[in-house]
Amino acid sequence: MTRFAMVIDTKTCIGCGDCVVACKTENKVPDGLNRDWIVEATNGTYPHLTTEFRSERCNHCSNATCVTLCPTGASHHWKDTNIVLVDPDMCTGCKACIAACPYDARFVMHPDGYVDKCTFCHHRVEEGLDPACVSSCPTHCMHFGSLDDPHSKVNHLLKTRTHKVLNPETGNYPNVYYLT
Amino acid sequence: MSEELFVTARSNALIDPSLHIWTWEVAMYLFLGGLTAGIMIFAALMTLRDKHHVAPFAATRLAVLAPIVLSLGMTTLFLDLEHKLFVFRFYTSFRVLSPMSWGAWILLIIYPVSILQVLSTLRAGFPKVVPFVERVAIASRVLDWCEANKRQIAMTAIPFAAALGIYTGILLSAFNARPFWNSGVLAPLFMISGMSTAAALVALVAQEHSERALFTKIDVILIIGELALVALFIINLATGSKQQLEVLDSVTGGPYTLVFWVLFVGIGLVIPLLLELLEIRGFGRRLAMVAPVLVLLGGYVLRQVMLDVGQESNWTNYSTQYNSELLQRLPHSD
Fold this sequence. Notes:
The structure holds 2 protein chains of 2 kinds. Helices cover 21% and strands 25% of the residues of chain A. Chain A is α+β, with helices and mostly antiparallel strands. Chain A starts with a strand and ends with a strand. In chain A, the strands form 4 sheets. Chain A has a 4-stranded mixed sheet. Chain B is mainly α. Chain B is built from 14 helices and 1 strand, in the order βαααααααααααααα. Chain B has helices spanning 24-48, 56-60, 65-80, 99-120, 122-125, 130-133, 139-148, 150-173, 186-205, 209-238, 242-251, 257-280, 290-312, 325-328, and one strand spanning 2-6. In chain B, α9 (186-205) runs antiparallel to α10, α10 (209-238) packs antiparallel against α12 (257-280) and α12 runs antiparallel to α13. Chains A and B meet through β2, α2, α3 and β6 of A and β1 and α4 of B.
């Protein structure tokens, strides 16, 4: 399995929301629905507080429970990669994958009724481009690439910076990394 | 402090502010599916143990309720689907690791098994209907075959009905993303609850005193078993992960406490258990209808409360300051 990863630097993310707008524009996500979002996390005790901004989305897990529990095969790993896609023509809208996602990254597409989510812009990846959110980031805090390529930017960042993934305890092996 | 909140608006329907993808339609299906499993198992057991004299309703007429109840359940399940025209997709693949895929195929197999079960007892249970059925040329021979093989049909019905009764619990327990459901106890709990509601249905509908007495006794055993499984379920949560401990608060002081303990455990299990015990000892016969109705109500409440609390249990819990109603206050230009 080819593993694509997104690496997001929380030290340079300012929570501007450009990635969210870029996604909605690129993928024509309808009003009221969001494939990505930004979380502001504040920790500590005043005056010793720390804040981090996290641009969040589907984690394109290597062990994706949404894929395992989908009863029809609509949720699948794209072309033997970790990129998780939903085939609308296979989806019954049973919502099992929504319940199966520990990151609550999926939603029902309106008005159609199939389940939708971040695709890592696989149509752009196929052409050698970065996902729209990564391309549009004004602080260049988002990076995308293959973990199988030892010389890729994402591998370099993960080797040289401290990082984390969200809820690794789920055992889903998420592939969106946050530099801390 | 540790505060995590959305900076950009996220108000995905059915997801935010907390998951509520499955509502009464799915709870009703889980209830009716369990009831169907119980109906088929008791009808088969009464046939196999030749209980026609003690329990004539269960042995000869009960089976006809299975396809009716199951059809109602499948109707509500269909109502829940968001992409209804693609319902056939359940049957263009079999996903061995998806309990829902197993369920879809079990439902498909259960229908012919259930129909055979009805046909094998049709002459004994519904003699007035038989002349109409036998107008079809082949019907008489089909009925002969089913009657001759009714023990084999009953033995086939039991494992398939058990699969129907148990898979719904496995389905919910397989969601590691929902810590409240992530317990192996759910499968036997749903199975035993389905059988208990079916026993209550027989006790409610049967005319013979001997039959009502038999199924009241069976129900007492099942309710005691169900209470034990509820206790195991709670112990499992109380000794679980941080996420499980947090969701346990929902039923121990939180918003679902009354529904879980009073409506489900109290009114749905303990009170009918006491009433049935009194009935067995010859007291409270006038209230004989109350206990089965409460058991049936409890069976539904179990599914509803499990669905509701389970969906609210999660790994990520962000606050949001986004209020979509505020958008309505903006002046609209035409």
